[in-house]
Amino acid sequence: MNCKQVQNLLNAYVDRELGCEEGYAIRTHLHDCSACHEEFVELVTVKQLLGGMVAEDPSKDFEARLMRAVFQEEPATQKSGFRWRPIFTFSGVGLASMAATLAVLVLSRPAADPNSNVARRLNFDSEFGRPAVSTSPDNVQNIAFEIQRDQIYAVGPDAASGVTVVSASHGPRQ
Amino acid sequence: MFFSAAKERLETDTAQNRTARFERLLRETQKPAFNFALRLTGNRTEAEDLVQEAFVRAYRFFDKYDDSLPFTNWLYRILANTHIDLVRRKRRLKTTSLDTSNQDGASSWEIADEDAAADRSIMEQTLDEPVQNALRSIRPEFRTAVLLADLEGMAYEEVADVMKTSVGTVRSRIHRGRKQLREHLLRHSPESVRQMSANKGDRNEL
Question: Which residues of chain B have a CB within 8 Å of the CB of A27?
Fold first, then answer.
């Protein structure tokens, strides 16, 4: 065995993971080669330094904190598979804000007729199914928005009749 | 009706047994698990967080635990995987915060320097400092393999079992890991390696 071969097997030799034959060849080489022997001794030292690191205890309340963290959501009691979920999730809030932006965009367009091309196109193209179909013209100042759950309501005077109308993000029920 | 009540009772009993069993295992293994995590992270706070996350995951998948494997080996597998997940997540955060132009989700963190330990800046308390610093300088996969062998005293086959890989991969990871540890120690605190090895100069000890 030459030095390179020995050095490649040296860590396995340190860990006593080699067979008799390889082990013997390395042992013989180390006896004759001071450079490899030095590396061997250093690797044994590293192993011992790691093994000799002082064990530390966790904080006093660690076990109690672990218990709380592990058993706080007890899967064994969820027999029906039902789980309470928060109503306002991140994705829900994201969706609502996207819908709000869409509604503002639609409102800022000069689309007077509810059956106008713009309104129909938006209705058709939107990823949200049936988005806000608002027909208010540009000059309407007093439009109020309200967001509840996944619905957006816009309140303002209708362009044609002047009567105050409420439009929802889901559009008219079918 | 009688049967459904009996079945329900049996289910409750099994669930209680499961909880009690896990609780006992948790009490028995939390200290060694913390110590292993401490060497893996080099930081008490991170080690406690890591152990907590590992136990939460272990309990969630406790049904999949196979009795033939020691519980600590199974737990350490979860712990090591969780650690690698955390290091990668941190590295990704670090990379994206440095390179804000990379908005298209390209995984630039993959080409980040593997040797640059992600958790170095969060160190708050050091122990066995030279060795711990050396550990932090090597890749987490190498660190895990070397620690399982040297700190936990596992044979390569056991390490392979924990890391779900082949003995050949373990041999290579330990070889490269320990070699890098030696180089790091020789460069940064040669006395820690030389002092001890001076006592081993006698070749007849081999």
Answer: 206
ipTM of the predicted structure? Answer: 0.76
Tell which residue, A66, A52, A53, A51, has the closest CA to residue B42. Answer: A53
- Say which CATH class B2-99+110-196 falls into: mainly alpha
**Helix or strand run (H / E) with residue A2:** none
| Domain edges within chain B | 2-99+110-196
Q: What is the pLDDT along chain B (206 residues), one digit of tens a residue?
A: 566 777 777 677 677 888 899 999 999 999 999 999 999 999 899 999 999 999 999 999 998 898 888 999 999 999 999 999 888 888 877 766 555 444 444 444 443 344 444 444 444 444 478 999 999 999 999 999 999 999 999 999 999 999 999 999 999 999 999 999 999 999 998 888 876 666 655 444 44
CB contact under 8 A, B206 and A42: no
Domain ranges of chain A: 3-51, 90-168
Nearest to A46 among B27, B181, B200 (CB): B181
Residue B64 DSSP label: G
